[in-house]
């Protein structure tokens, strides 16, 4: 069942039709096998780039789509509904491009963004470390400056596209301890001294590689610095506010896929002489699932519209990420329950949805961190 969408322009409606067509014909048919074989679909990201979908919220002057976040996020949702690894990959790539697009010099934008947005380059966002996940200001990867650039030493953990990305948006310490000593650097993956460990063996999302990325005396020029020295932490937080909306959209896409699978099965499966969808206990469960999905969608769209209007949206982004990812976990779990014993087998996609949903409650700020962000906004606490 196609989602009924409210879009701001006819161009946006045409764009979402293109996304839905690509998702149905090119993405969804490969999802189950791709996850089974842990096959990273790099070619699909190139296809998205050629179709103008890798830079939707960025300026057309640099190869972007000039689309508001309200539209971009619905494209992410459609792709995530077809295959979470692709929807989340688009969100991570968009996050990786954000520092250059928002804080880079005009020279950096002209030099880097066309390939970043056109599909020739795929990005990864390097903030988390083994001992500084939620406490990102405690990161220890260091970039030592000299007359010609920076030498980077350290490692980053839980990096989506680690080892497969073409560039890394890196946050490293260029100064003293704390947030004020962190800077942002653009590091090509081909840089000497940059390498990735083997991908992590994960519960789900096998086709989306997650790996430790190591920097061992990696040399980059002075022009690798994005923004000013010492401004990296504020850049990282600004990027994550937008990135959390991407994760919320991914969660809604996954929840929508789980809901549709549950409804289809409930209409097909007969018990006691009629479809199980006609039994009140199960129909009430489906109703609750649908209501939560719709509420999560409206929450991320409301936050996106605040962003598009230039209004503060960080708290609303945290709310959307929190509610949408908890919804995805609940709806995927309920979809398994609707399928009964079959839901626990790999003959149906709902067991994969349930495994995939869990990571969305963790990435780009755990849901406990989102509650802290929301609580501080309510109380004024630091």
Account of the 3D structure:
A hairpin with a 2-residue loop joins strand 9 and strand 10. The longest helix has 37 residues, at 232-268. Helix 1 runs parallel beside helix 3 and helix 8 (314-339) runs antiparallel to helix 9 (350-360). The protein has a four-stranded mixed sheet. A four-stranded antiparallel sheet has the order 2-3-7-6, with no helix packed on it. A two-stranded antiparallel ribbon has the order 9-10. Helices cover 52% and strands 15% of the residues. The protein is of the alpha+beta class and 382 residues long.
State the main characteristics.
382 residues; alpha+beta; 4-stranded mixed sheet; 4-stranded antiparallel sheet; 10 helices
Tell me the major beta sheet: 4 strands, mixed
Count of DSSP strands? 10
Classify the secondary structure makeup into a structural class. Answer: alpha+beta
Q: Secondary-structure element order, as H and E?
A: HHHHHEEEEEEEEHEEHHHH
Terminal CA distance:
45 Å
Mean pLDDT comes to: 95
- Please mark out the parts with pLDDT under 50 across 5 or more consecutive residues, or reply none: none
Strand content: 5-15%
Total helical elements: 10
Multimeric organization: single chain
Shape: globular
Helix content percent band: 40-55%
Q: Supply Rg.
A: 21 Å
Give me the side-by-side strand order of the main sheet. 1-4-5-8
């Amino acid at each position: 069942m196609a989602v009924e969408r409210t879009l701001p322009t006819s161009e946006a409606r045409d764009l979402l039709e293109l996304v839905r067509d690509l998702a149905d014909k090119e993405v969804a048919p490969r999802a189950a096998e791709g996850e089974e074989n842990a096959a990273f679909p790099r070619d699909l990201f190139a296809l998205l780039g050629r179709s103008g979908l890798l830079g939707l919220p960025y300026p057309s002057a640099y190869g972007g789509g000039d689309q508001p976040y309200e539209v971009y996020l619905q494209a992410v949702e459609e792709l995530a509904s077809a295959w979470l690894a692709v929807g989340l990959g688009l969100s991570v790539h968009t996050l990786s491009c954000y520092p250059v697009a928002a804080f880079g010099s005009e020279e950096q934008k002209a030099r880097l963004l066309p390939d970043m947005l056109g599909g020739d380059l795929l990005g990864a966002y390097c903030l988390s470390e083994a001992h500084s996940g939620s406490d990102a200001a405690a990161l220890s990867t260091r970039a030592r400056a000299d007359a010609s650039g920076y030498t980077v030493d350290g490692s980053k953990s839980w990096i989506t596209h680690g080892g497969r990305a073409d560039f890394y948006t890196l946050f490293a310490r260029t100064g003293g301890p704390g947030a004020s000593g962190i800077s942002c650097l653009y590091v090509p993956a081909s840089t000497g001294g940059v390498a990735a460990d083997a991908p992590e063996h994960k519960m789900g999302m096998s086709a989306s590689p997650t790996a430790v990325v190591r920097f061992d005396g990696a040399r980059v020029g002075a022009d690798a610095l994005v923004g000013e020295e010492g401004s990296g932490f504020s850049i990282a937080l600004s990027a994550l506010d937008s990135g959390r909306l991407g994760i919320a959209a991914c969660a809604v896409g996954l929840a929508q896929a789980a809901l549709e699978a549950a409804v289809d099965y409930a209409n097909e499966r007969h018990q006691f002489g009629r479809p199980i969808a006609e039994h009140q206990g199960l129909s009430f469960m489906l109703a609750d699932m649908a209501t939560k999905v719709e509420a999560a969608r409206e929450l991320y769209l409301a936050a996106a519209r605040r962003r598009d209007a230039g209004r503060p949206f960080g708290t609303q982004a945290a709310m959307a990420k929190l509610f949408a990812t908890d919804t995805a976990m609940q709806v995927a779990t309920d979809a398994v329950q609707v399928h009964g014993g079959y839901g626990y087998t790999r003959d149906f996609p709902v067991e994969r949805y349930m495994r995939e949903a869990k990571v969305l409650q963790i990435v780009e700020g755990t849901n406990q961190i989102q509650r802290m962000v929301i609580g501080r906004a309510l109380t004024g606490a630091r």
